């Protein structure tokens, strides 16, 4: 029994998106085309693959079984076909990266413009979110994360600055009004601006280190923001004098330079390793991703 490759791709797209319209928007196709392709595939296999309601489309047990085997197989087919890209003067195709908002703001601006200038036939899509996701299940080719959140079966290469720091800061007005902490434990007596990840976990405790002494504090304060999407609101609140903030030093650097914010407890700021570009360790890497990997490595060698 033979099934058309385009029908199989349509089924995977619809099942992954959870609906025909959603899959059509993601794939650039039409909902009617995808619906007909799935109906054709079900008729050929003589089994229902998707349960359809007015609100959702969910894979049946048979559909789930097919998806488990089909996803990796189609990925390998696409990668195999992509081999011809290596014989072009310039790679062609799409590259989709899943990255944290901090990387989109602090790492990629120095990489993306020169990369796209060097590879004008590659279409790059950046999905910025804080949740840790399966990049393949999310329809992405690769991701950027920090080492403590990398999956063990992924290949990872350094991208961006190799050392970063978390910085604590407040406005001169706030510090003039409430005093300047000299030890991390004093933060417990201050108004602190906190973050919460999409998972529900808080960005606390704040951790500091100096001369071998490690101090972890659980500050409280008047404002909690969703990490990533609302981080700039917390920065604006700190500038306005609402409280003390603790995030990436590079995020705050422009405000340090302008004088809008003042470093707090700088001798205690902790350093940590920079982010990594990670991708599945499969045999055939798509040409756009290979071009990006090589570009990142060359950029690191030049710096």
From TrEMBL:
Question: Which keywords does UniProt give here?
Answer: DNA-binding, Transcription, Transcription regulation
Where does the signal sequence lie? none
* Top-level taxon: Bacteria
Which Pfam families does the record cross-reference, listed alphabetically? HTH_1, LysR_substrate
Indicate whether Disulfide bond appears among the record's keywords: no
Among the GO molecular function terms of this UniProt record, one is:
DNA-binding transcription factor activity
Residue stretches making up the HTH lysR-type domain? 1-60
The record's PROSITE patterns line, in alphabetical order, gives:
HTH_LYSR (PS50931)
Output the CDD domains linked to this UniProt entry.
PBP2_CrgA_like_5 (cd08474)
Give the record's family classification: Belongs to the LysR transcriptional regulatory family.
Described function: Transcriptional regulator of the ttuABCDE tartrate utilization operon.
Task: Report the protein name in the record.
Answer: HTH-type transcriptional regulator TtuA
Which species is listed as the source?
Rhizobium aethiopicum
């Amino acid at each position: 029994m033979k099934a058309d490759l385009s029908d199989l791709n349509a089924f995977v797209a619809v099942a992954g998106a959870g609906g025909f319209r959603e899959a059509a928007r993601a794939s650039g196709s039409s909902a009617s085309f995808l619906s007909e392709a799935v109906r054709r595939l079900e008729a050929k296999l003589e089994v229902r693959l998707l349960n359809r309601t007015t609100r959702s489309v969910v894979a049946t047990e048979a559909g789930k079984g097919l998806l488990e085997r089909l996803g990796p197989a189609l990925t390998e087919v696409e990668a195999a076909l992509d081999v011809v890209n290596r014989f072009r003067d310039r790679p062609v195709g799409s590259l989709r990266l899943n990255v944290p908002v901090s990387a989109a703001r602090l790492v990629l601006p120095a990489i993306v413009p020169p990369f796209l200038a060097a590879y004008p036939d590659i279409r790059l899509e950046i999905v910025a979110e804080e949740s840790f996701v399966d990049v393949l299940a999310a329809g992405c080719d690769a991701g950027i994360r920090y080492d403590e959140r990398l999956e063990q079966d992924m290949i990872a290469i350094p991208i961006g600055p190799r050392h970063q720091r978390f910085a604590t800061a407040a406005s001169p007005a706030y510090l003039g009004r409430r005093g300047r902490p000299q030890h991390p434990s004093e933060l417990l007596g201050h108004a602190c601006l906190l973050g919460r990840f999409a998972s529900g976990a808080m960005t606390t405790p704040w951790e500091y280190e100096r001369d071998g002494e490690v101090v972890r504090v659980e500050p409280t304060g008047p404002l909690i923001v969703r990490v990533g999407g609302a981080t700039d609101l917390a920065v604006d609140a700190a500038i306005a004098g609402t409280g003390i903030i603790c995030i990436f030093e590079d995020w705050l650097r422009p405000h340090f330079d302008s004088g809008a914010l003042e470093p707090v407890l700088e001798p205690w700021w902790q350093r940590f390793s920079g982010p990594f570009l990670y991708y599945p360790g499969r045999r055939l890497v798509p040409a756009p991703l290979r071009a990006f990997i090589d570009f990142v490595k060359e950029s690191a060698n030049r710096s």
